[in-house]
């Protein structure tokens, strides 16, 4: 089997169990992301894959080769895995070419360094030292250095965390493009949901030492496995509903379900803020609400509302609206699109 395959992985620090049965498969050439709150064990997972930390149980295999099964461990230097740490960790005394070429055989060093400088868009900067580069350029050198020996798998441990917001988006996009061009299988870990959704082909949400759900960014956002994943992926309106015949009967009327075969009965459905519309006048299936907060965010307004009691709705709902809400502070809410049934986490 190609790609990375992790089954039933358990690992920890001393008596503390951090990874408690992690299952994860990353296809050859895919960009994957492990998303989870701080301290959930993301770095520990990467360190086990890289060979810096032992597995206690379970198995980690790459391209069909067992790397660690709790008994047999392949040393890190024989795994063909690249690692980009959070701070890039460049060698300060070496220039860019020296950093990228470090560890490459002498006869192909020069050619490979040039190739990589082109790939990461730093041609001409080979003689600069790390302190003469911006944070984004340093991260690109760290990426080039990790890619230089042509690893079978690249691990990225929150490599964009130290960059400011604008640079982070730019470098992240460039890195994703570079990895796709090189056809490298990669795993990025982050606690930033926007980063995960924009970077990866497949996202694994980690919670309490396990993977709660794996899927494409759109699957995770619109069809989360439970209310915990729903909230972690972005703002979520979780609305009570009666499920029957593939429809959710809510305070907003009937909405089609993402999964038409969902079991009948009472439940909770997810309605994302973009699925809630605000109008000044009542209509069919609208719910009256009071505007509690309204923030202009450039591309839209984030509007927090308190719906009238008596509908069984949560005290607060959130809508993202292209237009500002009416100045009266009273709005009528309508819900659009499909609702997703979400079991409690
Ligand atoms: N060397 C260590 N010794 C003991 N406990 C550790 C060690 N390293 C990490 N831990 C603990 O293991 C747990 C998981 O840490 P880990 O660094 O893997 O989490 P993380 O999800 O990567 O967090 P962050 O996003 O903050 O980097 C945490 O509770 C942490 O305190």
Automatic annotation (TrEMBL):
Annotated Pfam families:
ABC_tran
Which EC class is the enzyme in? translocase
Task: Report the residue ranges that make up the ABC transporter domain in this protein.
Answer: 4-233
Question: Which of UniProt's keywords are assigned here?
Answer: ATP-binding, Cell inner membrane, Cell membrane, Ion transport, Iron, Iron transport, Membrane, Nucleotide-binding, Translocase, Transport
Please name the GO terms that the record assigns under molecular function.
Answer: ABC-type ferric iron transporter activity; ABC-type quaternary ammonium compound transporting activity; ATP binding; ATP hydrolysis activity
Matching entries from InterPro entries are given as:
AAA+_ATPase (IPR003593), ABC_SmlMolc_Importer (IPR050093), ABC_transporter-like_ATP-bd (IPR003439), ABC_transporter-like_CS (IPR017871), ABC_transpr_FbpC (IPR015853), Mo/tungstate-bd_C_term_dom (IPR008995), P-loop_NTPase (IPR027417)
Q: EC annotation?
A: 7.6.2.9
Any one GO CC term of the record:
membrane
| Membrane-crossing residue ranges in chain numbering | none
Can you say what this protein is called? ABC-type quaternary amine transporter
Q: Which organism is it from?
A: Catenulispora acidiphila (strain DSM 44928 / JCM 14897 / NBRC 102108 / NRRL B-24433 / ID139908)
